[in-house]
Amino acid sequence: MKMEVVGDVASLDPDLLQLSELSPLALNSNPFLAEELFSLWLSLPETSRLVKNLLNDAKTGSFSKATANSAVSTATSLPSTFPSSSTPPLSPRSTSGSPRIVKQRSSPSLLGSPLKLVSEPVREVIPQFYFKNGCPPPNELKERCLFAIDQYFYGHLGLQIQEFKAVTKDICKLPSFFSTALFRKIDVNDSGIVTRDQFVNYWIGDNLLTMDLATRVYTVLKKPHCRYLTQGDFEPILHKLLASHPGLEFLRSTPEFQERYAETVVYRIFYYINRSGTGHLTLRELKCGNLISAMQHVDEEEDISKVLRYFSYEHFYVIYCKFWELDTEHYFFIDKENLIRYGNHALTYRIVGRIFSQGKMGYEDFVYFILSEEDKSLEPVAPYEISLIMTKLPDPPHCLFRFKCIDLDGNGVLTPNELQFFYEEQLHRMECMAQETVLFEDVLCQIVDMIRPEKEDYISLRDMKSCKLSGHVFNILFNLNKFIAFETRDPFLIRQIYLFLERENPTLTEWDRFAHREYIRLSMEEDIEDASNGSGDIWDESFEAPF
């Protein structure tokens, strides 16, 4: 059907080109209406000038502001004869609805019009933030390390184990007695030599260069794919320490004592640091303890007895001699009758019976026992194989095994009946020794005043751990010598002694002072015995203890 046009084309009202909306019925009855209207719009003089200007600007690659203004004025100079609507007009300049405009959007425009395509978003490159072995070292640090490595490996195909000490100490910043463990960690094929490339791949490739010292120690000592340290992991460094430290040179002729010394050091490490009591030393426990500083100290100090933490030979000597005195048959086990003689029969039969309710006590168990008995100010954990106490405690990491001994029914609290059960023997022993007795009711009031429990009906483990005087409570219940000393103490004299000791060495613990006294006593007894064996019964005032 052909549309009939009435009158001259120039007299056509141009408002027809700005229809705000077009009914579907109009399109159905006049299918060529839109094309006719568009042709009429193109025939207008203003449209012809606008198209020519746009083409010229497109050829020159520019778009003048005047051309844009004229385009806008041409579009706005044709007011609509239809009512306004919320929908955009279906005109050649409409942003939607026209197939021509959709075609134009498929190609980029140089005119800067709103019809041009939005460019693809630029992908932001996110740097790697997770590294399996930790963040790699900065280039400057890596270059310095490589330069130092070249100084040691220059002119060598590789280094042997006896040449690895300087590398361990100077480059790796580890104690020198780690050299054997580090060498074997790198030399996985047991070739007896570590090349430069092997060392670089391990130290820099596995990112040990950027690790803190505790993590380095942990990584070097632990077994592959293992997340904790065991007692056996410390054997290589202790064997190297015994073979190289000048303060332990006198032990080289006695392998048995070398072995006992190494065992004692390991037991002490796990007693103080392995707060979970599992026998598995974690990296977190290693970082929380003071073992790393003790290792550095022992590496620098020639007198190993001055390293009080873990490595002191004097402390080992006291522990071993105490055990040897009790182990009369020298089977390296002590029973209930042996332990009752500890501290000049200081302990009660009832507490000793509780300790031995599950069997005999070995050397490791005794190390835990003596450390906890002589320094009740600490919060040790029980070893994972100690009898009674020798079971894994249900409330790590700060359980006091003495609390476990007194807790007869295992309900986690101490009742007055349980306290009285252990104090009755103390009371009987004081009567036999003609000592002034203290009734249990008075003792119970004293204990409550010291502990200040949350509930007066019982004392919980939490109450004991939060009290600095909990050690005195245990002495009251099962260590007669210390209980009497506590009851007959002179507060003024104790204060003076305490201030003196604090001035002399404020870092000393109760265990340090006990071990020092006992070492002097044992040394004097040995000297007297040697003198007696050499020239009869000789006594010299110089042999008397200064305390």
Automatic annotation (TrEMBL):
GO molecular function: calcium ion binding; protein phosphatase regulator activity
Keyword Nucleotide-binding on entry: no
Assigned keywords, A-Z: Calcium, Metal-binding
Domain EF-hand: 394-429
Any one Gene Ontology cellular component term annotated for this protein: protein phosphatase type 2A complex
UniProt superkingdom: Eukaryota
Keyword set includes Ribosomal protein: no
Region listing for Disordered, in residue ranges: 75-107
Biased segments, Low complexity type: 75-99
PANTHER family: EF-HAND DOMAIN-CONTAINING PROTEIN (PTHR14095:SF14), PHOSPHATASE 2A REGULATORY SUBUNIT-RELATED (PTHR14095)
Protein name: EF-hand domain-containing protein
